Amino acid sequence: MPGYGDSPPAEMVATAQGRVAFLDRVLQELGMRRPVLISPSMSGRFALPFLLAQGDRLAGFVPIAPVATKDYAAEQYHRVQTPTLILYGDRDASLGPQALQSLRHLPRHRVAVVPDAGHACYLDKPEDFHRALLGFLRELK
Q: How far apart are CA 85 and CA 70, in angstroms?
């Protein structure tokens, strides 16, 4: 994502609307129609505004202890009809539970907590993470 890791910052993604436009363009360039958007940690700054603005374009949403969940009101989350799997590790004492407090307002959500895993639960317990993710993906068919 622009501005993260070794990528240079980009003026386009300085606002939530810019981040929505950026993600929209990426999906268009890849030719993706109704993808499942998986959003770990910092990618929440891109995925959450996209979900709220264009969630009907997604087949599903999988937030993994994303940042920026408190930037939006419960009423905004209530309007989203995208099936969602809220995922986090049980040893993620801050972002996991914090994200859940906001994301639980999504009407079509379920929660999966990966046991004995921290913030990067997909790295700590990849088999448990993939089991939860694949179960969710099967339900979307």
A: 18
